[in-house]
Amino acid sequence: MLSVRFVVLQSRQAVWGSRQHLCTAAARVPRTKGDGLKVPAFVYCTLRPLTTGMTKPLYHMFTSTSDSVISRSCATTSDTTNKSGKLNHVTVNKNVNGDICVNWENGKESIFNPTWLRYQCHCSLCRQDGSGQRLFGAHVLPKLLSIESASIQKDQLALTWNEHGHYGSIPLSFLEETSSYLDGQDWNLSPLRQVPEITYSELMNQKGVTLLQFMWSIATHGLCVVREAPIETDTVRLISNLIAPVQKTIYGELFEVMSTPKPINAAYSDVALPLHIDLNYYESPPGIQLLHCMRFDDCVLGGESRFRDGFHAAEELKKAYPDEFATLVRCPATFQKIHYERERPVHMRYHRPHIVVNHLGNVIGVNWSPPFEGPLRLPAVDIDAYYAAYWQFARLLEESPHVIQFRLVAGEVAVFNNRRVLHGRTSFELNGGHRHLQGCYIHIDEFKSQLMVYLNLHGDKNASMTAVGNQDLY
Question: Which residues of 53-72 are buried (b: 16+ CB within 10 A; e: fewer)?
């Protein structure tokens, strides 16, 4: 059984450069494989405080629980024992509206629509064995359906629909997992105050649970720093490949961020960069960005990295300035990259609102990239409202006390969610020195897929998820 808690146990003052660090909390827990062989699992978690002085214990990242949670088994209407040895009791009934009500052992009730249930039927006529894909189209069913009978049969909800008399079943585990999405989710985002850290050797030598902890930090905090990475070309690719292949863009697979005489991007100069998201002119901008500090000489003045949680800023705007928030949700901005004076000319343009919400009103997307904004294309009646809202959101981003700013050192890799965490930098003067970062991207869907796989294999698949920026429910 695997039972791991990622907890920062205590803190100590450790000066490193111009910053302080919390101590590493390491947990060694026996992990039993199928053949009974116990293999040690190592878990590391380090946080970089942004304030001086001693820091109290910070947070419980998440719990990787036993097999009973990883592969949950629900019981029948009579008391039975699942894999964990717990007694389960699940009941089902139909309410006055014809919906099916499932009462779980924890006292929670989930209500399921009859038509929705028909589309989720897992019987062999409706779902293909192996692929799990649905085998029928909507046109073969009535527009709406109703339930004749419902009962619990072992670990399945057995159903008979009035229309066509179809008899089918749905796993209770599937219904329990799905019920939270039907109820909706509230992210309750808090501003990022500490930056999670992990060393390169820990990440590369301890796969599995450690990689999950690394991805979980990126998913929940939006930012993680890998320390003590080799200062070698392609190191950033090796880190990326732990999660997914590098995403190729108009800048290639790997790109070099350094000041050049005729830059094809403002990042390739010494000017300050406002907080932004990379490649907002793509239909699907890159998800995870990795920036490996290859060289940052002491004589270079400025050039500090800046980060701000865009989702948190959008929620702040929603609460403080609801009209401006609604305007930025409704009015599309223009994002573009039109550059013919380069080896491979580029002409890209995309119109999208700065803030995207789902049907529940939750923020699921932020699009902000001032250096790559083109002419606004709105009716005249909307222009003043747009720029007033645009100005307000810019202030909440740039002038916020929640902006994180620090100087990378050679061997550090900043890994952050480009779809959620905005990044920028201060201007700098080389003074004869060098500032060189090497970067790459990972597609957001590839990242989320691997995170979900590792949660199911090495952690808690019921862990409370947050929005990862791919404009999904979570």
Answer: eebeebeebbbbbeeebbeb
